[in-house]
Write a structure and sequence with these properties.
CATH topology of the largest domain: Alpha/beta knot
Radius of gyration: 23 Å
Oligomer: single chain
CATH superfamily of the largest domain: SPOUT methyltransferase, trefoil knot domain
């Protein structure tokens, strides 16, 4: 089981995500627990202030350090070795499948959702274990990235996905993009399912799927091929695929 604690000034944004699909089922089963914490509830002034103007001038407002620190102290006592505190930020390390796998080994993950122009630097320096970004673009806040992290990590909890094999062969889990999938009907408007998938010959099916996975990775994300240990068979297949399509790198 993994417990997610999400710190946000807009916790209501999570209701739809947490109340539907596999996330809701995993929560109902007790596989995942998600606690939403409104940072405003941990302010100590009558206006429940969570942001202020930046020192040195500049546009926008900056999230204050005190409310975030007070929230963390209340919900995540120090000394929990299986806890990871994460700030969602465009300046963080790019979120990838390998990071989701790393995080899945924690029993508790705390996600801090920044907002406004930015967050007081002392949060970064003293209160978090790592920063994560979901891409090279800027959003209004960290709520959407937090939802993505929760979903990606939760998928790795045993029992979250009905067929555990599907997680093993997800894109990026193997180092390659996942190949094509087909289901009924066998033919639609002349578009047919590949014969090998109907053959019942599992070894040939597995070989075809791996080949198509290599083909898709070569065409769409050739950079990934430089980051995995290719077998001699993989190298042979890739040479064949490059010969079939000279446009591939």
């Amino acid at each position: 089981m993994i417990v997610f604690d999400i710190l946000s000034v807009f916790p209501e944004m999570f209701q739809s995500t947490l109340g539907s699909s596999l996330i809701k089922k995993s929560i109902d089963k007790g596989l995942v627990e998600v606690n939403l914490h409104n940072i405003r509830d941990y302010t100590r002034d009558k206006h429940r202030t969570t942001d202020d103007t930046p020192y040195g001038g500049g546009g926008g407002m900056v999230m204050k350090v005190e409310p975030v620190a007070h929230t963390l102290k209340a919900i995540a006592p120090a000394g929990d070795e299986k806890k990871c505190v994460i700030l969602l930020s465009p300046q963080g390390e790019p979120f990838e499948q390998k990071i989701a796998e790393e995080l899945s080994h924690y029993s508790r993950i705390v996600l801090i959702c920044g907002h406004y122009e930015g967050i007081d630097e002392r949060v970064r320096e003293h209160l978090v274990d790592r920063e994560i970004s979901i891409g090279d673009y800027v959003l209004s806040g960290g709520e959407l990235p937090a939802m993505i992290v929760v979903d990606a990590v939760s998928r790795l909890v045993p029992g979250f996905v009905g067929n555990s094999d599907s997680v093993l062969y997800d894109s990026f889990s193997t180092g390659f993009l996942e190949g094509p999938h087909y289901t009924k009907p066998r033919e639609y408007e002349g578009w047919k399912v590949p014969d090998v998938l109907l053959s019942g010959h599992q070894k040939k099916i597995d070989e075809w799927r791996h080949r198509e996975s290599l083909r898709r990775t070569l065409k769409r994300r050739p950079d990934m091929l430089r980051q995995v240990d290719l077998t001699e068979e993989d190298k042979r297949v890739l040479e064949e695929l490059r010969a079939e399509d000279p446009g591939c790198v």
